[in-house]
Design a protein that fits this description.
389 residues, alpha/beta, Arc Repressor Mutant, subunit A, two-stranded antiparallel sheet, P-loop_NTPase, AAA_16
Length: 389
């Protein structure tokens, strides 16, 4: 937390105490501009990118580690700073262990594969990052986009592209990205980001950077930094933060989801601080294994709406997929047929966002199944209500 933030917290004029002062600071789907506790990993990524600071393209690379290990936090924060380091800006960036690098003519771009799930979407996102004008989303084919990319890059332009969240059920693979960038290799290199180890990834680059799970003390630091921005002073004790960090087993996403849920529960009850019951309830509300909420919020709007309605249904309404689909289709704000909702629910189960749980047989025929969300529903409900997309 910087000095301005510390001062602003003491200038609050609300007459009523407010436990949660910033939900975004606690959110598992948001990343701070300055990630906590991953300095060595950040340096390893910068070491690989060093040629760019000497006006040369680095080789392709693959950054990997389990869910919640800070991959996206590091890459999104780093590339947001590097984007301005083009031939026109001639800016430099300081790091913790080196002097400022020389001016760079190499440009940088960051693409989230969760938001760009097809070859067309990836090409469109990259071109959109390289041009000043807005690239149309309609009336263009993927080959046209790639031709425009080749024209824009030309012979004297060099770009390093980070492609995040590769290899998930809804996203492209590392091999897809390697094939896409191969024709552009003279002027473009890429940094893929995924969970699978290099040995399990087709076309994985030789250069790799591993991010292991957080250690308990490191995760405690992450949670302390987030809660210091998101909660009122003394909103949660260090002992309760440490309890969540030890439970989360190195996964920052799950730890943040548990703290978020605990704080939201305490705030809803009108308490000024998170207590032990809030913490245990927040932990219990995070399924294990847990689907990243980033995946959930990257789904199309109609699927997010279906999920938002699903989590509000009673147990009776969710006793089978058919019953749930009928209740969702009839709900206010849902403009989808029951057949469409049924198809969406089965698709969500296929990609692992929800799990089909077989019910006990009540008669002849195949026993019905119900859907159980595999993500923190309390956190999703609050973020959805806040308009997170």
């Amino acid at each position: 937390m910087d000095i301005d933030e510390r001062i602003s917290r003491r200038l609050r004029t609300d007459t009523e105490p407010q436990l949660v002062v910033d939900y975004e600071a606690l959110s598992p789907v948001s990343h701070p501009a300055e990630p906590t506790g991953r300095g060595p990993a950040l340096e390893r990524v910068l070491d690989h990118l060093d040629p760019a600071f000497d006006d040369r393209l680095p080789s392709n690379a693959y950054v990997y580690g389990p869910k919640g290990s800070g991959k996206s936090a590091i890459l999104s924060a780093l590339f947001s700073r590097l984007v301005g380091l083009g031939a026109r800006s001639r800016r430099t960036i300081p790091t913790t262990t080196r002097s400022a690098p020389p001016p760079s003519g190499v440009e940088f771009a960051y693409v989230d594969a969760r938001r760009a799930k097809s070859d067309f979407a990836l090409s469109h996102a990259l071109l959109d990052a390289l041009v000043d004008e807005r690239v149309p989303e309609q009336g263009l084919g993927v080959e046209h986009l790639r031709e425009r990319l080749r024209e824009r890059l030309g012979d004297d332009r060099r770009v390093v592209v980070a492609v995040d969240h590769l290899g998930e059920p809804e996203t492209r693979s590392v091999a897809d990205v390697a094939a896409m960038f191969e024709p552009l290799s003279a002027s473009c290199s890429w940094v893929g980001v995924g969970r699978a180890e290099p040995s399990a990834v087709d076309a994985a680059p030789t250069a790799t950077v591993e991010l292991p799970p957080y250690r308990p003390h490191g995760l405690t630091d992450v949670l302390t930094a987030r809660t210091s921005r998101g909660l009122a002073r003394h909103g949660i004790s260090h002992e309760r933060i440490r309890r969540v960090a030890e439970w989360a087993d190195g996964d920052a996403h799950d730890a943040l989801a548990a703290v978020f849920g605990a704080a939201d529960r305490a705030a809803t009850a009108g308490r000024e601080a998170v207590d032990d019951t809030d913490v245990e309830t927040g932990i219990d509300a995070v399924p294990r294994p847990c689907v990243s909420l980033g995946r959930v919020f990257a789904l199309p709007a109609n699927r997010r709406q279906v999920l938002a309605t699903l989590v509000e249904l009673s147990d009776e309404q969710r006793r089978s997929v058919r019953d749930a689909a009928g209740a969702i289709a009839a709900a206010e704000g849902v403009d989808l047929s029951e057949a469409t909702v049924t198809r969406i629910l089965y698709e969500l189960a296929e990609v692992g966002v929800a799990e089909r749980v077989t019910q006990e047989r009540t008669g002849q025929g195949r026993p019905p199944s119900r859907l159980e969300p595999r993500f923190p529903t309390a956190v999703f409900r609050r973020l959805f209500a806040l308009g997170v997309e």
